[in-house]
Specification:
homodimer; alpha+beta; L-amino peptidase D-ALA esterase/amidase; Ubiquitin-like (UB roll); 2 domains; six-stranded mixed sheet; 30% helix; transferase (chains A, B); Arginine biosynthesis bifunctional protein ArgJ (chains A, B); multifunctional enzyme (chains A, B); ArgJ-like_dom_sf (chains A, B); amino-acid biosynthesis (chains A, B)
């Protein structure tokens, strides 16, 4: 159902543009704009749950009343922890976009990603806004090149642009995402923009439900960003109103696809690890336990070393504040039982984990129906190198 | 007040012995025994809060009724997650020690540390028990060599033996400890044995209070072991009953000294990081926030890189489930303010963190009296190497 051909401009009536404003020292593109041509402008957004949140999150959350016409996104600077100046800068960015496009500033969502604690170079950023607002009015709607350019301009230490698309019967839903570190979203994640030409009166329930089973199940490093934002815009340009089930499936498919792309490009990743916990009283319990295992440095180092270390697995889940039956815990790696009823299974130390994908299944032994999957990565030398060698 | 000359045998009336039973593949010493000669045998112990706990923890906790005569400790094998066989092996170990020393098995505390999930080589272990029980009856009480031998025999990836001592007026309290990884104790830690010739009717309150402000404030890697045990034995051999304040100070001093030694020898450590959080409503809130920062991989990588990255600091503490005033958070590194009221201070990126010790002070801005310090380390290449290159 999902093809990665185009992203945020795949749906009818969405334009995008990108430029190099000069915010990144690298000289790579760092400013992107996505504009909804209508006829409808329904939108939904979810944000970081971090108590320390960035100025663009404050601005966009404050204007999140069910409609957005455009999203402006910069990389290279998070505009977080910049006090009143940061808030003024986010407002000025939205105002400049709004003025150029002839829409209220409150209809412009603002997203930023990059280093925390440096104020935005507003001269460069506003010159960039002039460029992208001009360009977006000249580019064709649904341009794949423009969608890719936008997805590229929001990258920081991402190594690939992340796009996904779902084609319904006569309608489309597409999106783009960025995010490689500080990645343990809490019902929101990183920067994600989804667009659809379907008619959706209220996209919020679909976005919330999908975010919970996709982005919220990624836990790369236990760190939740100050800037996480996911926005879905719907314009009804296809004239089609998909049924509830299809809409949910479409939003799920694109969110899941983007989430898997984020996991695969996480900082320093050498292994993609899917942790499924079962046998808890509730799904929420299972997610808590899976997340605790996904954050455990010793477990993650073992994954890096292709070491089927079920002892560290049990020690980690044993600290989860959920009901379990400790002497009935069982663990499988890649489908092979390594621990049954909290004791080692024959051959447990010889399971082959040398591949890039590792499936971990942990049953906490209560006999309850709870289950959840969290996607994480290993803890590698490159992760340490990337995150110690320079500020980011 | 604290000298590291001798440890667990510093107090009058305590003997120790150690041997190489052959549990460790390395051929290093791996079995230690500490025996209290009396006349009194009061004792206290605290244990891991992990729901997955080892057989020796189950055995020792089950017999933790206020007295112990001896502690037998092996390294090289945690005897964790070995089911009923593990429980039988812990019982058999205590029984063998008890028989040789002429004391009930229930008066023998059992501690194990090492790899999780392999059953103990009981033939080797019981032969080792015969050796150490024989030796301990020939060695002099208060032998510094015997104390060091015991502290050495409980090491796993520890690079140095950890001992501490407090000399009161006519009485002494000493101890030994081991622990380098899987180190985020919860009111208990690793393996620690404290001995004193003071008269203490009920050592439990002193041990609990000290553990809470010492071992429980270490958080190296967020992982809580299945085997953490701290035991304090008092024999009254000095005939002295120190006052409440001095006893508390002595237990505190030795626990704190050992805790700092554990931090300094943590796996892969290149920086010792003390995180103090203030300005919370309660001390408990401050500890929660300090612990969350101490577990944050991005923050720890920044410390490894000597990077005064206060942005990651704010992002990490912002996820603490405690009351804070986000725009009044302030941060200092090594006494230099780098962030004031959630915005960068002049020169913040230039603070020198190249030394081995880094002090981090975070004020969460509520104006409340809460404060706590947690000791952690950086996240280094060596940490990843040590924990991925082989099972441990």
């Amino acid at each position: 159902m999902t093809e990665n051909t185009t992203g945020v401009t795949a749906a009818a009536g969405f334009r995008a543009a990108a430029t190099t404003a000069g915010i990144k020292p690298s000289g790579n593109p760092d400013l992107a704009l996505v504009v909804n041509e209508g006829p409808e402008f329904t939108a939904a957004a979810v944000f970081t749950r971090n108590q320390v949140f960035a100025a663009p999150v404050k601005y966009t959350r404050g204007n999140n009343d069910g409609t957005f016409h455009a999203v402006i996104l910069n990389s290279g600077n998070a505009n977080a922890c910049n006090g009143v100046q940061g808030e003024k800068d986010a407002e000025a960015t939205a105002a400049a976009v709004g003025e150029a496009l002839g829409i209220p500033a409150t209809e412009v969502a603002v997203c930023s990603t990059g280093l925390i604690g440096d104020t935005l170079p507003m001269d460069k950023l506003l010159a960039g806004v002039a460029t992208v607002t001009d360009e977006v009015q000249q580019v064709a709607a649904s341009s794949p090149e423009a969608g890719l350019a936008a997805a590229t301009a929001i990258m920081t230490t991402d190594t690939v642009a992340k796009q996904a698309v779902y084609h319904g019967e006569g309608w489309t839903l597409g999106g783009m995402a960025k995010g490689v570190g500080m990645m343990a979203p809490s019902l929101a994640t990183m920067l994600v923009v989804l667009t659809t030409d379907a008619r959706i009166d209220d996209p919020a329930p679909y976005l919330k439900a999908s975010a919970e089973v996709s982005f919220d199940c990624i836990d790369i490093d236990g760190s939740t960003s100050t800037n996480d934002t996911v926005i879905l815009m719907a314009n009804g340009a296809s004239g089609i109103s998909p049924c509830d089930e299809e809409l949910a499936a479409a939003v799920n498919a694109v969110c899941m696809d983007l989430a898997k792309q984020l996991q695969a490009d996480a900082e320093g990743v050498t292994k993609r690890v899917a942790i499924t916990v079962t046998g808890t009283e509730t799904d929420a319990d299972a997610k808590v336990a899976a997340r605790i295992l996904g954050r455990d440095s010793l477990f993650k180092c073992a994954m890096f070393g292709s070491d089927p270390n079920w002892g560290r697995t049990l020690a980690a889940v044993g600290m989860a504040p959920v009901t379990m039956v400790a002497d009935r815990i069982s663990v499988s790696f890649n489908g092979q039982p390594v621990c049954v009823n909290a004791t080692g299974a024959p051959g447990a130390r010889d399971v082959d984990l040398s591949g890039e994908d590792i499936d971990v299944l942990v049953d906490l032994g209560t006999g309850g129906p709870g289950t959840a999957t969290v996607w994480t990565t290993d803890l590698s030398h490159d992760y340490v190198h990337i995150n110690s060698a320079y500020s980011s």
